[in-house]
Amino acid sequence: MNQWRSWSAVAVIGALALTGCGREEGSEAGPEGGGPIDEAPATGEVTIWAMGNEGEVLDQLAADFETENPDVTVNVTPVPWESAHDRIATSIAGGETPDIAMLGTTWVGEFAATGALEPTPEGLVDEGDFFEGSWGTAVVDDVAYGVPWYVDTRALYYRTDLAEAAGVEAPTTWDEFKTFTEGMQAEGAEAGISLPPGGFDSWQYLAPFVWQEGGDIMNEDGTEFTFETPEWKAAFEYYASFFAEGISDPVRLETGEIEQKFISGDVGSFFSGPFHIGLLEEQGGEGFADQFDVAMVPGSDARTSFTGGGNLAVFNDSENRDASWKFVRWLSEPETQIAWYGISTTMPSVQAAYEDPTFADDPNLSVFADQLADSKAPPAIPTWAQVSAVIDQELEKVTRGDTTVDEALAAIQGQADSIGTGL
């Protein structure tokens, strides 16, 4: 999950990265991990910080781990998302970290750069068990720090009644998507698609169009930003066309607004994660589940979507390293992840879990499972918060008609080059 952060926290992280997290001057700050983790039962106390709903309900799952490991106690500290980034940064600066912390996927690069995270022990889990895009969120400069715990990706929600009336089916290409959204407008929707016109985290909606064109945020070796490219230009122009042609509302709709406009038929479609299934069924009332459907995102050369979620990382200063990694490993087992979905409704990061009927037999959840096989995350670099903020700002200028796509891309490229990667 990519959550709010303050610039003060980013400044703290930058300072920590430069000082190597309190190492003596002249010491090497390369990634150093301990030995492998054995199969013996976990013992002692483990403290974990978890955010949002996951933090509120994790103790229910942790109780099962304690049953299987009678000599261990797991202490779960719920942390609100809005304060989590600052709290972790402060704990690193003060040398008072928990054993484990749940990290938003775009935070891993920042915190790994401080030297506070222990690299994932060799053999703890099998990288191939995870979705490629999800595993990539834990990797910084070819080193994995922790493991993906749960994943999130975006698919297309659309009103089936409006689509049927317009005579259109779920789109697979960019051209079909434009026709699809125009058709729903013709049947009464004020907006055929609701897209963020800019502002915080709008890049998450724009970047998939770039990936679908075969472009990326950085070059293959991760040394240069690649914003001034034909792929970025094509994605920017296509995205902006929905606003220029009046297909998407120029006003940004937040969670709470989008559901009501979708239920009323004012919005014909939008991109979101699996959590919206339950929200729409609950708020739409009896029978509304038959009025919407979910489909993979339409694409160009590919149908790539954005992937996020939550990762689990162990700190170098953990007072119970082995038990901490054993808990992380247990949380990564398919059976545990299936049980976790039943408690939290967060999607498993391990591919084998999707063979369970819970996902395989659900037409909407199975779409998200398919989408996860073609999903991608931004680069795990310490400066991503600053770089992505520039994209958000320039996208808003383009959708308002205040600047051209070429001018926006030049501005993004220039500022990103100035900010650097932080590695």
TrEMBL record:
InterPro entries referenced in this protein's UniProt entry, alphabetically: Bact_solute-bd_prot1, SBP
- Give the superkingdom in one word: Bacteria
What is the designated name of this protein? Sugar ABC transporter substrate-binding protein
Q: What species is given as this protein's source?
A: Arthrobacter flavus
